[in-house]
Specification:
Blueprint: H1 6-20, H2 30-41, H3 59-66, H4 70-79, H5 91-119
Helix pairs in contact: 1-5, 2-5, 3-5, 4-5
Length: 120
């Protein structure tokens, strides 16, 4: 089984959200857009799953995403001040935790990608 790349998957979801909502990113408004995306997408089911508690709506898929990503889950739990009791809530909750943890980095990389494309 291949390791699921959370960062790349979340970045793709962020780019899709930006495109679908016709969000324009410029050098001048980047910080504002980045903050707005962080605030909005943290509870967006199509990016983090945090609003409903599941991104995948499928325990099996969430378990597959978690395979080989336990270190990432551990980092996320530490960052959010949680303990391993999160595991009791199941794979989907763990998957959402990682997505919320990685969101800021994914948004930043997505915006970097958009700026690079505009400059070329």
């Amino acid at each position: 089984m291949e390791r699921y790349d959370y960062l790349e998957a979340i970045k793709e979801d962020v780019l899709k959200y930006i495109n679908e909502n016709n969000i324009v990113v410029t050098t001048e408004n980047r910080d504002e857009v980045e903050q707005e995306l962080n605030d909005t997408l943290f509870t967006c089911d199509s990016v983090t799953g945090n609003a409903s508690g599941s991104y995948t709506f499928n325990t099996w898929t969430a378990e597959e995403y978690l395979c080989h990503n336990w270190d990432l889950l551990s980092e996320a739990l530490t960052e959010f001040g949680c303990d391993m009791s999160c595991l009791e809530r199941g794979a989907e909750a763990c998957d959402v935790t990682i997505r919320c943890y990685m969101l800021g980095q994914a948004i930043s990389e997505a915006l970097d990608e958009i700026e690079t494309e505009e400059e070329e």
